[in-house]
Write a structure and sequence with these properties.
The structure holds two protein chains of two kinds. Chain A is of the alpha/beta class. Chain A has three domains: 175 residues, FAD/NAD(P)-binding domain (3-Layer(bba) Sandwich), CATH 3.50.50; 126 residues, FAD/NAD(P)-binding domain; 85 residues, Enolase-like, domain 1 (2-Layer Sandwich). Chain A is 25% helix and 28% strand. In chain A, the strands form seven sheets. In chain A, strands 3-2-1-7-19 form a five-stranded parallel β-sheet, with helices on one face. A five-stranded parallel β-sheet of chain A has the order 9-16-10-11-12. In chain A, strands 22-23-26-25-24 form a five-stranded antiparallel β-sheet. In chain A, helix 1 packs parallel to helix 9. The longest helix of chain A is centred in the last third of the chain and has 15 residues. Chain A is globular and about 60 Å long. The N and C termini of chain A lie far apart (47 Å). The model of chain A has no long low-confidence stretch (mean pLDDT 96). Chain B is α+β, with helices and mostly antiparallel strands. Chain B has a single domain, classed as Ubiquitin-like (UB roll). Helices cover 16% and strands 21% of the residues of chain B. Chain B contains three helices and five strands. A five-stranded mixed β-sheet of chain B has the order 2-1-5-3-4. Chain B is globular and about 30 Å long. In chain B, 41% of the residues are buried. The model of chain B has no long low-confidence stretch (mean pLDDT 96). The chains are: A alpha/beta, B alpha+beta. At the A-B interface, helix 1, helix 9 and helix 10 of A face helix 1 of B. The complex binds flavin-adenine dinucleotide and FE2/S2 (inorganic) cluster. Flavin-adenine dinucleotide binds next to helix 1, helix 9 and strand 22 of chain A.
Chain lengths: 416, 107
């Protein structure tokens, strides 16, 4: 038995993966996973997809069977929050008063939905945010056919909930204050595609529209939204999806460097060498240009977990990973690879204005740096290779749909 | 309980039990079986749960959906006629004793 004592705060996608990865790699010291939710680690992506739709059970959400944690001698504390970290004593104090010692501490606390700063909303039972299974369990009974749902925010969560709500027969109005949907995540062409799809599926999409006031009825529920254009929108349910706030207070109170997330180095170490941070809460240097970024995705959380597991076991490994993401809306699967924020050219492969299948490639100085693929896993497979290889491909060839994804892949392999 | 045998690329075997309705991918991740990742959690988005189903077991499997077939294009190792994404294989009595081979890479 080693004398190491690893404590992980946050039993979500990243924390759970780390615990499993440490045991997989042969770590046999003490291992404690502290989580403030009432569940073993579960997958969040289905929350706004199959789980809300009723096509996936709570049990199916679990990433690993509960028995695994016992078998692997992982101490799981559920319904328990970490309250403070004492870096000198190397201890964590929990909400139940217990004090845990650590030799290495990993913070994987994720984030919480950004709240609308509106007083009227705080007591309203029909206003929802989505982050946890409990959030969906509370909201689900309101999702009856014909119910009027207003969604505030046209990001992934808002759009996925809109899609499920339409499939369940709700009346959906979506308000987005920006000029386009998914403004932070994609280019205007893809934004316009998703506006069309949601319009075709019967969502009333209002761009450049904000809520000016919320009218609360006798029940305390929000009954009407007044838009900045003065329009009154009657509602039964309000869903707010306007982004994430990283849960970094614990780290900040302990004096760690925090700035829009917990700042870590390339090995995911905080400003204290015994403390690491991974997942949605971690702000890490990009392997390419060193710029700090925080990524909110499952692949990022789990890959950071597997990377830091190696580092914790004495084989320091920098985090280098090809980012990817997906979203399901109606019959449309969007798959994203790479980071498109610094492109200088956009290449369209396929038809954006008809149908539900196309690929968008993002180029930077002629190099394929990212792609958004809709309805074509074959193109996603190729795009992943192109982005991973930082391939230089003639845009004319990329755009030519007479060249199959398979041939495109072969042509690139031949050049590389 | 349904017995599932995983065979690693180096020939190493391990057998685990899955409960009714549990996917073979979850059986693998719940038992820390190396080489099956299941990054998207069974949402048919990642293809990191690729397996080659043993020929004999293949006949006991319900057919794959068009969506699964499409996603087989994304696997890291070239798929064969016996390839499946094991997040889509749900344990049931009729599959008891199923044998799957793990590919050399998932990404
Ligand atoms: C509805 C929804 C849909 C999504 N869809 C996708 C998708 O399709 N694809 C994709 O890639 N990503 C998706 N994501 C994002 C993805 O789920 C996150 O990126 C991922 O969960 C991050 O993992 P994490 O471990 O960092 O955080 P979490 O999974 O949030 O885990 C953090 C855990 O720590 C707990 N915690 C916080 N503070 C404390 C404390 N002080 N003490 C103890 N415990 C604490 C939290 O309650 C939580 O359980 C989605 C997210 C949501 C909410
Ligand atoms: S787990 Fe992602 S496709 Fe099977």
């Amino acid at each position: 038995m080693s004398s190491e004592d690893i404590v992980i705060i946050g039993a979500g996608q990243a924390g759970g993966e780390l615990a499993a990865a440490l045991r997989s790699l042969g770590y046999d010291g003490r291992l404690t996973l502290v989580g403030n939710e009432a569940s073993y680690p579960y997958a969040r992506p289905p929350l706004s997809k199959a789980y809300l739709l009723g096509k996936c059970s709570a049990e199916e959400l679990l990433i690993r069977a509960p028995a695994m944690y016992d078998q692997q001698n992982i101490n799981v504390r559920m319904n328990t929050a970490a309250r403070s970290i004492d870096r000198k004593a190397k201890t964590v104090t929990l909400s139940n008063g217990e004090v845990l010692s650590y030799s290495k501490l990993v913070i994987a606390t994720g984030g919480r939905p950004r709240q609308l700063p509106v007083r009227e909303l705080s007591g309203a039972a029909n206003v929802f945010y989505v982050r946890t299974r409990a959030d969906i369990d509370r909201m689900r009974p309101y999702f009856a056919p014909g119910a009027r749902l207003a969604i505030i925010g046209g990001g992934f969560i808002g759009l996925e909930v809109a899609s499920v709500a339409r499939q369940l027969g709700l009346d959906v109005t979506l308000l987005e204050s920006q000029q386009r949907l998914l403004a932070r995540a994609t280019c205007p062409l893809v934004s316009e595609f998703f506006r069309r799809i949601h319009h075709e599926e019967g969502v009333d999409v209002r761009l450049q529209t904000s809520v000016q006031s919320y009218l609360v009825g006798q029940s305390g529920n929000v009954e009407t939204l007044v838009s900045d254009g003065g329009e009154h929108i009657r509602v039964d349910i309000v869903l707010v999806g306007i982004g994430l706030v990283p849960n970094s207070e614990l780290a900040e109170a302990a004096g760690l460097e925090v700035e829009n997330g917990i700042v870590v180095d390339e090995c995911l170490r905080t400003s204290d060498p015994a403390i690491y941070a991974i997942g949605d809460v971690a702000r890490f240097p990009d392997a390419g240009n060193g710029a700090l970024r925080r990524i909110e995705s499952v692949p990022n959380a789990t890959e950071q977990a597997r990377t830091v597991a190696e580092t914790l076991l004495g084989r320091p490994r920098p985090y280098i990973s090809l980012p990817w993401f997906w979203s399901d809306q109606y019959d449309v699967k969007l798959q994203i690879v790479g980071l498109s924020d610094e492109h200088d050219q956009v290449v369209l492969r396929g038809d954006l204005t008809n149908g539900r299948k196309f690929a968008i490639y993002y180029l930077r100085n002629g190099v394929v740096s990212a792609a958004d693929i809709v309805g074509s896993p074959q193109d996603f497979a190729v795009a992943r290779k192109l982005v991973a290889a930082a391939a230089v491909v003639d845009p004319v060839i990329l755009a030519d749909t007479r060249i199959t994804p398979r041939d495109l892949s072969r042509m690139v392999a031949a050049v590389a | 309980m349904v017995k599932v045998t995983f065979i690693h690329p180096d020939g190493r075997q391990e057998q685990h039990e899955g409960s009714d309705g549990q996917s073979v991918m979850r059986v693998a991740t719940s038992n820390l079986v190396d080489g099956i990742i299941g990054e998207c959690g069974g949402d048919l988005s990642c293809a990191t749960c690729h397996v080659f189903v043993d020929e004999v077991s293949w006949r006991t499997l319900p057919p794959k959906t068009p969506e699964e077939d499409d996603m087989l294009a994304v696997t890291a190792v070239e798929p064969t006629e016996f390839s499946r994404l094991c997040c889509q294989i749900k344990c049931s009595e009729s599959l008891d004793g199923i044998v799957v081979h793990i590919p050399k890479a998932q990404r």
